[in-house]
Write a structure and sequence with these properties.
It contains six helices and two strands, in the order ααααββαα. With 157 residues, it is mainly alpha-helical. The longest helix is centred in the middle third of the chain and has 34 residues.
Length: 157
C-alpha cells in the first residue's frame, strides 16, 4: 500500500462520497433535483445553491487554479518535447537515409534504435505523468472533490 499511495496513505479516506450521492435530477418526475422552483430545498427552508453555481465557485477557487497550473506546467512542455522528438524521427527517416541506415550493432541500425526509442519515450512519459500527478496534483484534486461533494450534498435530495 505504501508503495502505491505513499507514506501518507494511513490518513487517506477510502469511502467515496460520489457513489453515495444521487445525481441531480435523477428520480424526480419534474427533474428539479430536489429544489423547488423558488430556489429552496424541498426538505427545508434554507436556500440551496445550484450545482452549476457550486462548480463555478470551485472553478474560480485558488486551489483549483493551482491544480490546473501544475497540470499545464507538466503537460505542455512534455507534449511539445515529445512531438518535436517524433517529428525529428519522421523527418530523419524520410530525408536522412544514410544516417538512418548506419549500423549500430549487427543488424541494428540508427532507424531501428530511434524507432524503439519512440516506444521507450512513450512509456517513460507515461510514468513521468503518473508520478507528477501523484506527487503534485492528486491530493489537492481529491480535497477539491471532497469539498465539492460536501457542498452539493443537499442538492438532489
Amino acid at each position: 500500500m505504501e508503495k502505491e499511495a505513499g507514506p501518507d496513505a494511513a490518513g487517506m479516506r477510502f469511502d467515496d462520497p460520489w457513489y453515495e450521492a444521487p445525481v441531480t435530477g435523477w428520480g424526480d418526475p419534474d427533474g428539479a433535483g430536489g429544489i423547488a422552483a423558488d430556489g429552496r430545498s424541498r426538505q427545508g427552508a434554507q436556500t440551496v445553491h445550484s450545482a452549476a453555481e457550486i462548480y463555478l465557485e470551485v472553478q474560480s477557487s485558488p486551489v483549483f487554479r493551482e491544480v490546473r497550473r501544475r497540470y499545464r506546467r507538466f503537460v505542455v512542455p512534455a507534449t511539445v518535447a515529445f512531438l518535436l522528438w517524433y517529428l525529428a524521427y519522421v523527418v530523419a527517416a524520410t530525408t536522412a537515409h544514410d544516417l538512418m541506415a548506419r549500423p549500430v550493432a549487427g543488424a541494428l541500425n540508427v532507424a531501428m534504435v530511434a524507432g524503439l526509442g519512440q516506444f521507450l519515450t512513450t512509456f517513460l512519459l507515461t510514468w513521468a505523468y503518473v508520478r507528477h500527478a501523484r506527487l503534485h496534483r492528486d491530493r489537492a484534486a481529491l480535497e477539491l472533490r471532497w469539498e465539492t461533494q460536501e457542498m452539493t450534498r443537499g442538492i438532489g435530495r
